[in-house]
Amino acid sequence: MKSENSPEPIQGNVGGTDPGPRNIELDRQNPDVLTPPRTDHGTLPNLKFSFAMAHNRLQGAGWARQVTMRELPAATTLAGVNMRLNPGGIRELHWHKQAEWAYMLDGRARISAVDQDGRNFLDDVGVGDLWNFPAGVPHSIQGLEEGCEFLLVFDDGSFSEDATFLLTDWFAHTPKEVLAKNFGVLESDFANLPADIDRTRYIFQGEVPPSLSTDMVSDSYGERSFSCHFSAQQSVKTSGGKVRIVDSTTFPAASTIAVGLVEIEPGGMLEMHWHPNAEEWQYYTEGRARMGVFASEGNARTFNYQAGDLGTVPFAYGHYVENIGRTPLRFLEIFRSPHFQDVSLNQWLALTPPELVQTHLNLNKNVMGSLCKEKWPVIKDMKH
Ligand code: MN
Ligand code: MN
């Protein structure tokens, strides 16, 4: 059998040792790529990339890296950015053509926005909190005392974090006489603008802001909420883990992005299923996973993931996700859709006439008895 420290591409009587050269670190991280299950077959697009492989843009007050269609071509509907803001660090005021959904991974941030009707928004978000800014709505993010790290997801695979509309960029590319006319002041009032013609601030150092109530700007047009605070009660517990669904039904601001926050116990598995409405985009935050993907025409592939990795599942492909580590597996499954939707293989068969199902696969009584009509057997405890 393959040892975890020195895995060899051998399975039973097929394969052979790998004398090298080899990237042993990647081999250890991808045991089911090096030595695939015998059921794998055919050619599939690559369904894995990692933020660890993405160019990192280091700035004065943090960093940002992105995984888009350029890095993971199979993911056409969504793109992701992983960003760090140091204490007081500011992701400058900006907007973009895509909606921005976000999940706070570490620390806390203050976020601001103003919508097209003049309604403003200011909130502090912490670990597990979400926000969603619709396309075109201007906003900013600032790290609080402890700084922060977060995941951003945009509802277009070809998004680029380097192509957002920056406040400094626009000021730098507008004649000062126009700025003066726009604000009804003198050209000389803009003598100290921070940007050179080519430079923007993007992520820059600021002071940690005062308390939220002190920082709030009063608004006669009213306020609008773009955030969603973590609530443990929203989780659906199953025998092998839990799932928390957040989509437009519970978080109206997220009108184009639906998410399942999945936690699977060691040995557990997110059961065989598919999504009838959208391609899946995944971000792994803890643990070790094996995902098997079924592509029809006899084709199937298996991939491995760990914290910091991204996965994707093409539209309607069948798949399962197993926890193959000794600690809980946590990941986000994200869809460009107002609603989270999935079809469970088990539930499908349980709700179909049993004679039809039994005849179809020659199933015995044990299998027929295991079929479950409930919507959430989804995470199975495999210990029994
Ligand atoms: Mn943004
Ligand atoms: Mn799925």
Summarize the SSE layout with pairings.
Elements: E1 10-11, E2 14-15, H1 24-29, H2 31-34, E3 48-50, E4 56-59, E5 62-67, E6 79-85, E7 89-95, E8 100-114, E9 120-125, E10 130-133, E11 139-154, E12 165-166, H3 167-172, H4 176-183, E13 203-205, H5 212-215, E14 227-228, E15 235-238, E16 241-246, E17 257-264, E18 269-274, E19 280-286, E20 288-296, E21 299-306, E22 309-313, E23 318-323, E24 329-336, E25 343-344, H6 345-350, H7 354-361, H8 365-370, E26 379-380
Antiparallel strand pairs: 1-2, 3-22, 4-5, 5-6, 6-11, 7-11, 7-12, 7-13, 8-9, 8-10, 8-11, 10-14, 15-16, 16-17, 17-24, 18-23, 18-25, 18-26, 19-22, 19-24, 20-21, 20-23
This protein binds manganese (II) ion (2 copies).
